[in-house]
């Protein structure tokens, strides 16, 4: 691995050259990583006639953004996506923190059964699931409603997050909770007042990731919504029509959708790294 | 459910507590995952065309048809496993390298870290479309750069292995930040003392890495590998967008196979059967992987 | 006797009352559609009618990628979601049993007969289930800055020769560019196949499912005409280099992007693209586009055209008064001259009422060309097949020809023969 030999080669070089090389490598990695997104941003600034041949020609415009923002559905979709992502995050964390706590603190058939269930359903492919979900949503009157979009978005995270939450609680010493129990604290008290506060950083980290997942989620939104609850990924997809793809508008919308995610990642990464200790 | 003696006297109370803890999750899981999946499972035993659901019982006919389809056995499954292994291994190695890089302080560390998280922020479908255009042989920037350097541009998506390469690259790109985050969090929570001791002993960097860092990151790596392997196995949207399983059916993965049956052939019954077969395979593979990776990391 | 009359009167009055109050309850009609210029123009006519009648037109846009899947699921689960839905020849037989017969809608006698054929949209009882929205078909586009009308290739061989000449003179990068990937087969594979007197299933051009079944849904992949078609494209890409190497993976967005950037002399696209190709905001060659008939292969002498309709349909599951109102709206659309003229102008699609066609042709030479070359052509081809497994057959066909054209030239016949069975199997739902 390059990483291993690096110090040896490095050591022979003068400090300035070492720094320069390190900087260049870093820049290269960052450039490659960010490139598709930079290219997307560049695309969104191109006229429709030059939106595929991005590297050819120099006319740029903000017109795509103006056109997209004039569409009330796009604005509504941003609000909806933000709302759904936020609510889904809050509720996902609420239901999985207790489920993960149970998996971590208890052994025996009940916990094993629950863990098995979670594992099995984590493995089920989406393909076998989305269409029946559509039937179910329709027959329960949840199709194209906020509830009908929100609840599956919570459900989809249960398996994965319960698993991670278990990991978080495994890393927290349970002796404090036993002490609290002996002191006459109820089990709920021990969970909420003793264990939960230590898990807050982890929960916050998961929250950031959950929000990003839901914000960018496409398949469920596509299947479960019609026109009453437009969300941003579905609205983007609607720029693809029988008459071709309005790639300039799609790119502009995608770039705008990138912004909230970017802000969250920018300020949230600290908490994610601090919290995501399994 | 039988209860296990845990040394505490309040069996009933403990059971109630356990059930209450998982109740909200269990209810949601049942309504929006168990019930739909049961409907799909039911359909897999029936004559259930999407446009004309007769719903007559056909037993294991759909399973038999899928399992005797040479395309499924010799193209789709191998493709899926190759994809899973390369995607997970690639993103793990890259993620680990980046996590080690970010774990030491340098000027601009925060900036680099933010840039490396960029793939997390994009909707995967948009990323896949962008990649497809970037690898177009005519207007794609990749060929434009190659031709600018005096090299030959390639028709990336027309040949099986280059198309597969583009798919894998996109997937690894999308998922590396996720590994980086988890592993970086793991690295930063490691105790300092063993590393300081190793430094005093003059242990080589490689030995520190293999004998200290890797074993201590064991649990994180296990979770990363197993969970991502399951996800990689059922990858759908980026492949569908990038190649549609083509050229021919040479990059078709298992979930595309099920999708085509259910939504192009409109045979919901057989599509469900294929999905369930895939689900069972990954269930077993995941469990085995968990054991293997756990043991490997332990030694 | 008196009793009977009185009872009849009462029943009649009651009936009127019920009907009156029921139709009074229906205040809106819900349209399930897919935003695009032609559908928007058609819905504009619904809205004109709705404004007059005090009926609200609720537009429910659907995503393109999953339109058929979601609508099929909606129709089979009898959910009361839409009163009028976008319908297309590709799904004619898929949905026929789920749709309300439309034969009793006044104005349909003005619709074009070929597109409305029972083979496409008829149900098991022989009733039609569609109301036309407009005609769609593909045409061969060329660049007027590169070629005079008399220089436009008339045969597939001439496409190669003319392209090579243009490329040699450094006038254009590529000769022909068109979509080839799954679901975009029309823009290279299908037109060149029909132009060489070939088709997906045998007997050629047969669309009656009974006849196709009698022939065992036989695939024509192993026929010489199909081998010629695949070899033609293999040569175009690899030997003559008039088409880019990436073309077998192109969808129409990619092909049209290259054409609109001015990098190709020819393409085939839906006639509705005329508006896009000639729009300076979207196309670098906006003022340099014209359309012509398809070039022909060695096996065909007579010109051909393909022509299908897009349409509207009414789900069987909605209530009787909603059906009645929806039919009234569609009948009004069929005779809305002003609205149909607008539809033509905004899309280049011939409108549903054939009585308006001569008037448009008198004003617009493009329509005159379309009428001569396509609409009144005696040799028409249907652009799809009309059985539920058609998408599966289409995919099996596309997979086979893609595999053949991306492989070695000497293996083409072998690959096609090997995959012929998969097409027939797909047709039989196996």
Offer a few descriptive terms:
heterotrimer, B: 299 residues, mainly alpha, MetI-like fold, 2 domains, two-stranded antiparallel sheet, 14 helices, globular, disordered N terminus, C: alpha/beta, D-Maltodextrin-Binding Protein, domain 2, 5-stranded mixed sheet, 4-stranded mixed sheet
Outline:
The complex is a heterotrimer of chains A (278), B (299) and C (430). Helix content of chain A is 77%, strand content 1%.
Characterize the structure shown.
The complex is a heterotrimer of chains A (278), B (299) and C (430). Chain A has 2 domains: 14-64, no CATH class; 66-275, MetI-like fold (Orthogonal Bundle). Helix content of chain A is 77%, strand content 1%. Chain A has helices at residues 2-12, 15-44, 63-70, 72-105, 109-123, 127-139, 146-170, 175-182, 187-216, 219-224, 232-237, 247-275; strands spanning 240-241, 244-245. Chain A has a two-stranded antiparallel ribbon. The longest helix of chain A is centred in the first third of the chain and has 34 residues, at 72-105. The longest helix of chain B is centred in the N-terminal third of the chain and has 33 residues, at 11-43. Chain B is globular. Chain C has 430 residues and is of the alpha/beta class. Chain C folds into 2 domains: 2-136 and 308-380, Periplasmic binding protein-like II (D-Maltodextrin-Binding Protein, domain 2, 3-Layer(aba) Sandwich), CATH 3.40.190; 145-306 and 389-427, Periplasmic binding protein-like II (D-Maltodextrin-Binding Protein, domain 2). Chain C contains 17 helices and 11 strands. In chain C, the strands form 3 sheets. In chain C, strands 2-1-3-10-4 form a 5-stranded mixed sheet. Chain C has a 4-stranded mixed sheet with strand order 6-7-5-8. In chain C, strands 9-11 form a two-stranded parallel sheet. In chain C, strand 1, helix 2 and strand 2 form a beta-alpha-beta unit. The chains are: A mainly alpha (278), B mainly alpha (299), C alpha/beta (430). Chains in contact: A-B, A-C, B-C. At the A-B interface, helix 1, helix 2, helix 4, helix 5 and helix 6 of A face helix 1, helix 3, helix 4, helix 5 and helix 6 of B.
Distance between the termini of chain C: 63 Å
Sheet with the most strands, sense and barrel status of chain C: 5 strands, mixed
User: Assembly state here?
Assistant: heterotrimer
**Major pleated sheet of chain A:** 2 strands, antiparallel
CATH architecture of the largest domain in chain A: Orthogonal Bundle
- Shape, per Cα inertia axes of chain C: globular
Q: How many domain modules of chain A?
A: 2
β-strand percent of chain C reads: 5-15%
Q: Whole-number radius of gyration of chain C?
A: 24 Å
Question: How are the strands of the largest sheet of chain A arranged?
Answer: 1-2
Largest interface: A-B, 96 and 99 residues
Uncertain residue segments of chain A: 1-5
The strands making up the biggest β-sheet of chain C line up spatially as 2-1-3-10-4
CATH topology of the largest domain in chain C: D-Maltodextrin-Binding Protein, domain 2
């Amino acid at each position: 691995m390059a990483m291993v030999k690096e110090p040896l080669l490095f050591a022979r070089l003068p400090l300035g050259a070492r720094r320069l090389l390190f900087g260049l490598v870093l820049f290269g990695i960052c450039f490659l990583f960010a490139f598709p997104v930079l290219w997307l941003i560049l695309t969104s600034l191109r006229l429709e006639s030059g939106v595929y041949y991005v590297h050819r020609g120099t006319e740029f415009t903000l017109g795509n953004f103006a056109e997209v923002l004039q569409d009330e559905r796009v604005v509504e979709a941003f609000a909806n996506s933000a709302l759904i992502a936020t609510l889904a995050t809050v509720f996902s964390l609420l239901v999985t923190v207790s489920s993960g706590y149970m998996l971590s603190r208890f052994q025996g058939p009940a916990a094993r059964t629950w863990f098995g269930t979670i594992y099995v359903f984590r493995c089920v492919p989406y393909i076998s699931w989305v269409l029946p979900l559509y039937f179910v949503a329709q027959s329960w009157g949840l199709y194209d409603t906020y509830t009908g979009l929100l609840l599956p978005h919570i459900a989809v995270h249960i398996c994965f997050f319960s698993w991670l939450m278990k990991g978080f609680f495994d890393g927290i010493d349970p002796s404090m909770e036993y002490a609290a129990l002996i002191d006459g604290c109820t089990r709920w008290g021990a969970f909420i007042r003793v264990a939960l506060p230590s898990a807050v950083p982890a929960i916050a980290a998961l929250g950031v990731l959950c929000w990003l997942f839901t914000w960018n989620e496409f398949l469920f939104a596509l299947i479960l919504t019609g026109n009453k609850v437009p969300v941003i990924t579905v609205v983007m997809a609607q720029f693809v029509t029988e008459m071709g793809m309005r790639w300039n508008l799609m790119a502009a919308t995608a770039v705008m959708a990138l912004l909230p995610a970017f802000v969250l990642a920018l300020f949230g990464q600290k908490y994610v790294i601090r919290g995501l200790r399994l | 459910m039988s209860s296990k003696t845990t040394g505490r006297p309040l069996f009933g109370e403990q059971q109630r507590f356990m059930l209450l803890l998982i109740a909200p999750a269990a209810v949601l899981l049942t309504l929006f995952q168990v019930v739909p999946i049961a409907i799909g499972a039911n359909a897999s035993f029936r004559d259930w065309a999407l446009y004309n659901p007769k719903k007559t019982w056909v037993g294991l006919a759909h399973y038999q048809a899928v399992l005797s389809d040479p395309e499924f056995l010799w193209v789709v499954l191998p493709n899926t496993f190759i994809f899973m292994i390369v995607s997970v291994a690639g993103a793990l190695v890259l993620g680990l390298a980046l996590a080690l890089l970010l774990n030491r302080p340098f000027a601009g560390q925060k900036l680099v870290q933010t840039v490396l998280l960029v793939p997390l922020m994009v909707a995967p479908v948009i990323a896949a479309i962008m990649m497809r255009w970037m690898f177009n042989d005519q207007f794609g920037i990749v060929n434009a750069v190659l031709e600018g350097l005096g090299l030959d541009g390639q028709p990336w998506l027309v040949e099986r292995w280059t198309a597969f390469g583009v798919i894998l690259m996109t997937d690894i790109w999308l998922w590396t930040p996720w590994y980086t985050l988890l592993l970086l969090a793991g690295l930063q929570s490691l105790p300092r003392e063993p590393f300081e001791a190793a430094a005093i002993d003059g242990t080589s960097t490689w030995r520190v890495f293999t004998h200290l860092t890797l074993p201590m990151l064991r649990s994180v790596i296990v979770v990363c590998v197993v969970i991502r392997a399951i996800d990689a196995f059922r990858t759908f949207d980026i492949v569908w967008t990038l190649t549609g399983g083509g050229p021919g059916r040479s990059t078709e993965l298992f979930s595309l196979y099920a999708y085509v049956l259910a939504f192009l052939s409109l045979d919901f019954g057989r599509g469900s059967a294929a999905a369930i077969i895939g689900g069972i395979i990954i269930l077993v593979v995941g469990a085995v992987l968990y054991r293997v990776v756990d043991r490997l990391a332990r030694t | 006797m008196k009793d009977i009359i009185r009872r009849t009167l009462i029943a009649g009055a009651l009936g009127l009352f019920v009907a009156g109050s029921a139709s009074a309850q229906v205040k809106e009609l819900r349209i399930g559609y897919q935003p695009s210029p032609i559908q928007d123009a058609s819905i504009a006519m619904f809205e004109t009618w709705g404004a007059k009648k005090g009926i609200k037109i609720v537009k429910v846009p659907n995503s393109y990628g999953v339109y058929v899947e979601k609508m099929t699921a909606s129709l089979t689960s009898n959910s009361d979601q839409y009163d009028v839905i976008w319908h297309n020849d590709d799904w004619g037989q898929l949905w026929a049993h789920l749709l309300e017969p439309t034969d009793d809608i006044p104005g349909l006698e003005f619709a074009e007969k070929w597109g409305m054929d029972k083979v496409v949209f008829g149900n098991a009882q022989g009733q039609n289930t569609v109301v036309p929205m407009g005609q769609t078909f593909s045409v061969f586009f060329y660049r007027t800055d590169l070629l005079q009308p008399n220089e436009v290739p008339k045969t597939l061989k001439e496409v190669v020769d003319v392209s090579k000449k243009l490329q040699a003179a450094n006038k254009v990068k590529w000769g022909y560019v068109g979509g080839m990937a799954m679901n975009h087969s029309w823009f290279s594979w299908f037109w060149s196949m029909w132009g060489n007197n070939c088709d997906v299933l045998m007997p050629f051009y047969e669309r009656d499912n009974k006849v196709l079944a009698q022939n065992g849904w036989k695939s024509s992949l192993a026929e010489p005409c199909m081998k010629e078609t695949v070899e033609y494209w293999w040569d175009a890409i690899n030997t003559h280099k008039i088409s880019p190497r990436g073309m077998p993976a192109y969808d129409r967005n990619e092909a049209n992007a290259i054409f609109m950037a001015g990098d190709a002399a020819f393409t085939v696209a839906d006639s509705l693209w005329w508006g896009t190709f000639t729009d300076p905001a979207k196309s670098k060659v906006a003022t340099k586009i014209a359309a012509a008939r398809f070039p022909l292969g060695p096996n065909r002498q007579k010109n051909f055209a393909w022509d299908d309709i897009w349409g509207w349909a009414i789900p069987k599951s909605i209530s009787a008064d909603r059906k009645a109102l929806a039919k009234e709206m569609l009948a009004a659309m069929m005779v809305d001259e002003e609205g149909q003229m607008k539809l033509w102008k905004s899309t280049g699609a011939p409108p549903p009422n054939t009585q308006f066609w001569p008037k448009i042709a008198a004003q617009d030479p493009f329509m005159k060309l379309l009428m001569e070359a396509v609409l009144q052509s005696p040799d028409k081809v249907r652009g799809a097949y009309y059985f539920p497994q058609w998408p599966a057959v289409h995919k099996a066909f596309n997979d086979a020809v893609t595999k053949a054209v991306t492989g070695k030239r000497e293996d083409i016949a072998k690959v096609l023969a090997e995959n012929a069975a998969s097409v027939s199997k797909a047709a039989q739902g196996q």
